[in-house]
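Before we proceed, please read the two lines closing this message. Tell me what the token row says about the fold.
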Amino acid sequence: MLAKSQRSDIVGIVVHWTFYDYVEGDRNPIQDWYENELSDGGRFGFDGLLKNSAKTRSELQWSGFKYPKGELRKEKIWQIAFVADGKQYRLLGVFQAARRAFLLIGFYHKGKIYTPPNAFDTAIRRAKALREGRAGTRERKIKFDL
């Protein structure tokens, strides 16, 4: 018998993780980045990264998963990665509950040039706002039929 996930309408897919976007009031900066900064190829890479990560039991198997050094690590902010259009994209996030991942900011970089340039500071500020209850989250619907 095929398993059916609580979070997926597609029979046979078992989802281990749920992803949430960081939101400030009515503003969803993750969705804004997705819609306004990513190309079609970038959105496909982003969707594929979350789809594959959601089905993986351990976050250690996510593409490019690591805890960066310095202040990000102190704040328990992790990174995952994908490549699209020749750019190295990154997402920074935090865990706040079992099998729930909260996306703080998306960015890309070439060498030591980051877009946006304040991505790390923004992630730290947003992680603190979540912990202190000054910001919210919205569940990101994963596209499993890619």
User: Anything to note?
Assistant: The helical segments are 29-36, 40-54, 71-74, 119-131. The chain has a mean pLDDT of 90.
